[in-house]
Specification:
Blueprint lengths: L7 H4 L13 H10 L2 H4 L19 H21 L12 H10 L8 H11 L8 H12 L14 H7 L23 H7 L13 H4 L4 H25 L4 H11 L3 H15 L3 H14 L1 E5 L13 E5 L1 H19 L2 H25 L12 H9 L3 H14 L2 H12 L11
Helix pairs in contact: 2-5, 4-5, 4-11, 5-8, 5-11, 6-16, 8-9, 8-11, 11-14, 11-15, 12-13, 13-14, 16-18, 17-18
Length: about 425
């Protein structure tokens, strides 16, 4: 049965045509993401705690899989509700899964610490943004070959679903730290909108950034649902979220009825060692707290992806915010994770400085420290900004293990050999 929710506008691909087979366009999107090198790298990139430190911590890959499962479940739940969706008119779960699987592809090593450091290094050089870097991978580097094909040729619906932010870096009055597209991605935004001019009411900035397709909205909420709760689980397992710390945080930060209820529920679950069950129930509530509302805007006449917006129950949003605040205050602001952030900054700054001095500063080439293919890209780039982007792309694409080994080879005299090249 044909799904009337989507049309040829949604399945058109960026960067030219691609081979078709027994799968629909969105299933091909999903499969190409799963089999991409960039996706496999997520298994060795930090979510909260350093990748590889313990086997049970979430990595970017396991987090991504959880977001994809929640996203699919939201699609299935919405389809069961009375309302605009029908058996032949529904949000495609394969498409939403693909968007969720892709949403963190551009994030660098060392988690949010790595992202903040690259943002600082690129502040005057066009900026760095994890979501914009994901779009860069999808449209420019994944599956790139010698024939000139660039990117994975994603469908418009997939690319739009990943696009959490639509304002270009240069369109802000002041250079922002995050939440932007690269200036070079103007054509991507034009493609996503099918050439339709953006109305003045959505002037570049936060309003345009908030203009998201229904699939992007589902991915965004699935991401919130996953990390707001699962960071708590990992925090308890890591010993950061002890009963004493949770109680002290609650005494200083919680005064409303909902917060007290959630705090007591969390403490009881930790004491009884049944946190996994509580988290499972809460994720279920975050899924069933979703509804659709009709939405009128300049894109609604071109695609049903902009005919609806996701409405999340206020209590579910308040609960997610509670868990995120708790995790941020106790885990992310802890001396232990701040020490790891300091280490991440040093690694990235030192590697950046070595690359910059050897590949960008005129007459300063001392050693060829980059892989030959990457070094050739930096050498071929015109202008310091373009060279900086190539170095940034290389650093962002490294896993935690790869960047640590590279750092040790360059700065630790006792590490490395001629055979240790990975």
């Amino acid at each position: 049965m044909t799904n009337r929710f989507y049309g040829t506008f949604d399945s058109e691909t960026y960067g030219g045509g691609r081979k078709t087979d027994y799968r629909n366009a969105f299933q091909i999107d999903r499969d190409r993401i799963i089999h991409a090198h960039a996706f496999r790298k997520l298994q060795s990139k930090t979510q909260v705690f350093l990748s590889g430190e313990y086997d049970f911590y979430r990595t970017r890959l396991t987090h991504t899989m959880e977001v994809a499962q929640i996203g699919r479940s939201i699609c299935h739940f919405l389809r069961t509700r009375k309302g605009p969706l029908r058996d032949d008119f529904y949000i495609d779960a394969d498409l939403v899964e693909a968007i969720c699987l892709a949403h963190d592809l551009g994030h660098p090593p060392f988690g949010h610490s790595g992202e903040r450091t690259l943002q600082e290094l690129m502040r005057g050089r066009g900026g760095f943004e994890g979501n914009a870097q994901t779009v860069h991978l999808l449209t420019a580097t994944m599956y790139e070959d010698r024939s000139g094909v660039r990117g994975m040729q994603p469908t418009r619906a997939l690319l739009d679903g990943v696009l959490k932010y639509k304002t270009l870096f240069g369109e802000f009055r002041r250079p922002p730290a995050n939440h932007f597209l690269y200036d070079s991605q103007r054509d991507v935004r034009r493609f996503v909108f099918g050439g339709s001019p953006v109305p003045r009411s959505l002037a570049p900035g936060e309003k345009l950034n908030g203009f998201k397709s229904i699939e992007c909205q589902i991915m965004d909420w699935a991401d919130d649902a996953a990390y707001s709760l699962n960071d708590i689980v990992d925090g308890v397992k890591a010993g950061f979220l002890t009963i004493e710390r949770i109680e002290a945080w609650g005494d200083a930060n919680v005064g409303d009825a909902l917060g007290m209820r959630l705090l007591d529920e969390l403490l009881d679950a930790v004491r009884a060692d049944r946190l996994a069950g509580v988290v499972s129930d809460r994720i279920g509530a975050f899924i069933t707290g979703c509804r659709l509302r009709e939405w009128d805007n300049f894109m609604a006449a071109r695609t049903h992806r902009y005919s609806f917006e996701l409405v999340v129950a206020p209590e579910a949003q308040s609960q997610a915010l509670f868990y995120k605040r708790l995790a941020n205050d106790i885990i992310f602001e802890s001396p232990q994770l701040q020490q790891m952030e300091h280490k991440a900054r040093k690694v990235l700054f030192d590697l950046w400085d070595s690359c910059w001095r050897n590949y960008v500063e005129p007459g300063r080439r001392v050693v060829r420290i980059l892989p030959p293919a990457i070094g050739a890209l930096v050498d071929a780039a015109r202008g310091r900004r373009a060279k900086a982007r190539q170095i940034c792309d290389w650093l962002a694409g490294l896993t935690d293990g790869m960047i640590v080994r590279t750092y040790k080879r360059l700065f630790n005299p006792d590490f490395g050999s001629i055979r240790d090249l990975s």
